[in-house]
Amino acid sequence: MLRCFPTFTLIVILLSDGEFSQLRLRSKENQYPPKGKKGNSHPSSLSSDPMRGGSINNKDLISSLSDDIVLHILSLLDQKEAARASVLSKRWRHMWALLPDFYNFDALKMLWWRLKSYDDQQYDTELRKYVRYVTQIVSSTPAQNINIFRVRIPLDRNYQDDLQTWVNFAMAKSVKELELNLSCPEGFICEGKRLRVGPFGCYAQSPAAKSLVSLSLTALEVSGPFIDSVLLNLPNLELLTMSELYCGVKSYIRVIGSSLKLRYLEISYCHGLGKLDISAGNLISFVLRGSEEDVKFNSVPVLNEVSFEGIYAVRLIHNFQTISGFSSQLNKLTLTSVFKGISHSPIEFPSFRKLKQLELGIWNGSYMSLPFLSNFIDACPVLNKFKLQCMMRLGIGETQFVNERLEANVNRADTVSSKPHHHLNTFEMVGFLGCKADTELVLYIAQFALLLEKVILHPLLEEDDFGLTKEASSRERAKLLRNQLPPRVQLEVL
């Protein structure tokens, strides 16, 4: 069987009683002489070495492997490769389908996906073939239970029945993690109406109703009642991710329930989401990327990690009262947005008395002044790590961002906090430019953070007139700080 696969090398390492043994199966491409040439000058070597595919016994060595070894080998391959490997041996033909956590269908890994940019007709043909392939797999597998079922295929409503078939399959197989990602990759345009997923009430009696612990939905059309049906009929759900969902007009989503086991909730740019109420006794992590949502945290007694991105993050900074009910219990806070003008507005910081990690991300040429940052740090008395990300890459003529940071007023002693900090030991800055504002921030933290041990700087990437990346100037300015920092502080320039 191996002679069918030129240059096929398979290594299996087994650990038994602390000792390793190795089984190596190899088929050489040169075991048959090229056309037009005489046979191998050492014909006896082929017949005497069965590992080279000789015909001494024509023995199928792969079939002699135990089921555990075969399943381990297949688990290291992706879905397509494992299915193709089934031709290696009759015993392998259906074993790939027995892998408990193996259903991962990602159309974007297929070469034909690139056809979408120049040949829509051929792309549609290949997409239909791939959908039929997935349906065939889920219709023929003998597996009784599966751990993970993931689909990443940009589909429109023409494939409604196929998607429902896949979901029905996963729910009938006691799936633990279900991910449906129908989004169109960045840079491509996907037309057609969004797919809908039926309410999960129909799965109330299915095996997965109690087994499903993780649900991720991307680029689907849903409604508020749909989310209610998810939370009501999946009592053991611990992770819920909703991204780019179409929720209608000013949809109202409630994540409420005294018996909810939900621990991780992530909502990213869901269109039409107007109001969100959260009351979850076991929720420990919440991520929101959005803009105009009205979010109310009614009861989140153990919530300790939150991340806000987009316009909502700016709204939050101007009204921290929204999270004042649980700010004192947070261990990690992440805010990412375009923060223009916040340094000129009075900010009332709540108590972050348990906060150990603070991450601030700045987009599109905005900046944060030293007065704002110093008072933010001061509101976090046990802060251990502070990370500031200036997520912008400078191109030709993009000088406004540089000028804003150069002109940032960093010497307003009346508003800059001068209180010493007794816990901060690591400061990291991504997008270090080396202007006065950047330098003053680093030196301020080194001065007032009495236990500061490390400063990590990532120089800002710039582009020259030819579009080539350069970072030498920012890097050199970062290194100049070495002699200005206290001896106790280690400087890393990455």
Automatic annotation (TrEMBL):
<dbReference type="Pfam" id="PF23622">
    <property type="entry name" value="LRR_At1g61320_AtMIF1"/>
</dbReference>
<protein>
    <recommendedName>
        <fullName>F-box domain-containing protein</fullName>
    </recommendedName>
</protein>
<keyword id="KW-0732">Signal</keyword>
<dbReference type="InterPro" id="IPR053772">
    <property type="entry name" value="At1g61320/At1g61330-like"/>
</dbReference>
<feature type="signal peptide">
    <location>
        <begin position="1"/>
        <end position="18"/>
    </location>
</feature>
<feature type="domain" description="F-box">
    <location>
        <begin position="62"/>
        <end position="97"/>
    </location>
</feature>
<dbReference type="Pfam" id="PF00646">
    <property type="entry name" value="F-box"/>
</dbReference>
<feature type="domain" description="At1g61320/AtMIF1 LRR">
    <location>
        <begin position="161"/>
        <end position="460"/>
    </location>
</feature>
<dbReference type="InterPro" id="IPR053781">
    <property type="entry name" value="F-box_AtFBL13-like"/>
</dbReference>
<dbReference type="InterPro" id="IPR001810">
    <property type="entry name" value="F-box_dom"/>
</dbReference>
<feature type="region of interest" description="Disordered">
    <location>
        <begin position="29"/>
        <end position="51"/>
    </location>
</feature>
<dbReference type="InterPro" id="IPR036047">
    <property type="entry name" value="F-box-like_dom_sf"/>
</dbReference>
<dbReference type="InterPro" id="IPR055357">
    <property type="entry name" value="LRR_At1g61320_AtMIF1"/>
</dbReference>
<dbReference type="InterPro" id="IPR032675">
    <property type="entry name" value="LRR_dom_sf"/>
</dbReference>
